[in-house]
Write a structure and sequence with these properties.
By secondary structure, the protein is of the alpha/beta class. Helices cover 47% and strands 8% of the residues. Helix 2 packs antiparallel against helix 9.
Length: 421
């Protein structure tokens, strides 16, 4: 019985993790659908904002229940919620003759009561440890390479950077560094951010081109992309087993670059759109993608999205209109997906006319037993077992015993109901 609390906690954790990941997967598919249906109405920043709903769904340990939640109609593959496990009223099958005792277990035989749930948590934890270790080594190596470099002291470059900061509205102190540790311009760190440029970068680009690069990287600071990148990475590690989460965060990074391009273009003249696009193309031809790190964002995050970025830059037009369609899509998805399904009415709650009964939803299902089915470390003097069902058991319910999922009743004994479940 020593392992029982651990096994119960393990099962509850798996239920919560599986439900959170499944619900986020549904939201990811809805975001992709919304982006496709409203591709003409969604500006780049709103395309990126829709992914924030996925981040919130994964990050929030609890969300309110609602009648309009999408999950009232979509049943999770994870059968039980932790709420139903902890809130179920207890029922029991009690032997009428308390003098009955189960056969003694030979003291020489002992089985460690690991279950498939423990093995699953162990597998999940192994993946987390592997990813965290890789992240630590990569970040440590990159940070060590950057710390060895001295900041730039070129007055022309520093003045240009300050002008760009004023243009974007960024007050955060920023250090400018040229280093071989990166393959393209990148922003590193959010506590003490550094703008990293490849070695010799300032000699190959004109001041006008450098201005566009600086504006783009400062746009990441303005939008808070580095802290968000750390949060995304943490959630990705937590849900490493879900391929849809990996795909969603890849798309989110691509949309983030589009949103940052749009932010720069909104602060420049329309005549500069072409020159900004040409600077992006020159960067693509000259430099490679930067090293991956949660604390780093760069102007060349995803080369596969370059055609889409250049097309957006060429078609970009400033507008002061309220994005009503985008706001409606965002609010609608938030209402139906950032809420949980309402639990079924309890026995004391009146049931509306025409509502389905428990029998119409299928046969009762056992959700917990004490001792657990297959438990080896059981007190030989135990005279009572409890069995909890997923619903209240009405009149006429009986305990048949037998079957692979049902604890057998002792021979000659009859189970009695302690309460409604």
């Amino acid at each position: 019985m020593i392992m029982q609390p651990l096994l119960d906690s393990t099962g509850s954790f798996l239920v919560w993790l599986g439900r959170a990941s499944w619900q986020a997967s549904v939201l990811i598919l809805l975001v992709l659908l919304a982006q496709w249906l409203f591709r003409q109405q969604l500006a780049p920043r709103w395309r990126h904002a829709l992914w924030l709903l996925v981040v919130l769904r994964l990050a929030l340990p609890w969300v309110p229940e609602s009648r309009v939640s999408l999950f009232n109609w979509l049943q999770s593959p994870v059968y039980l919620s932790t709420a139903s496990m902890t809130g179920a009223m207890t029922s029991a099958a009690v032997a009428e003759d308390e003098s009955y005792s189960s056969p003694a277990v030979a003291p020489a035989i002992f089985a460690w009561p690991f279950s498939w749930q423990v093995w699953l948590v162990g597998l999940w934890l192994a993946g987390v440890v592997l990813l965290v270790g890789n992240l630590f080594v990569t970040s440590r190596r990159l940070g060590a390479g950057i710390r060895r470099q001295r900041p730039m002291t070129d007055t022309t470059m520093l003045n240009l950077l300050e002008d760009c900061k004023q243009e974007v509205g960024v007050l955060t102190p920023l250090t400018l560094i040229e280093t071989s540790a990166v393959g393209s311009p990148s922003l590193h760190g959010f506590v003490r951010p550094r703008l990293l440029l490849p070695t010799g970068f300032t000699k190959n680009f004109s001041p006008a081109e450098l201005r566009y690069v600086f504006l783009h990287e400062l746009g990441h600071i303005k939008r808070g992309d580095i802290p968000l990148n750390w949060l995304m990475t943490s959630l990705l590690i937590f849900h490493w087993f879900n391929p849809l989460v990996w795909f969603a965060f890849s798309r989110m990074q691509a949309d983030r670059e589009l949103a940052c391009d749009a932010l720069v273009l909104a602060r420049t003249r329309e005549a500069e759109n072409q020159f900004y696009g040409q600077t992006i193309i020159k960067l693509l031809e000259t430099f490679c993608r930067p090293a991956r790190s949660p604390g780093m964002v760069g102007i060349l995050e995803n080369k596969n999205q370059m055609r889409k970025r250049i097309s957006m830059i060429a078609k970009f037009k400033k507008t002061n209109r309220w994005p009503l369609a985008a706001m409606a899509v965002f609010a609608g998805l938030a209402i139906v997906t950032l809420t949980n399904a309402q639990p079924p009415a309890s026995a004391g709650t009146p049931v509306a006319a025409g509502a389905g009964t428990a029998d119409e939803q299928g046969p009762p299902v056992i959700i917990a037993t004490s001792p657990r089915v297959g438990e080896m470390d059981v007190d030989p003097a135990l005279a009572e077992i409890t069995v909890t069902f997923d619903r209240d058991m009405g009149k006429g319910s009986s305990w048949p015993g037998g079957g692979p999922d049902y604890p057998p009743s002792p021979e000659g004994k009859k189970a009695i109901w302690r309460d409604k479940r």
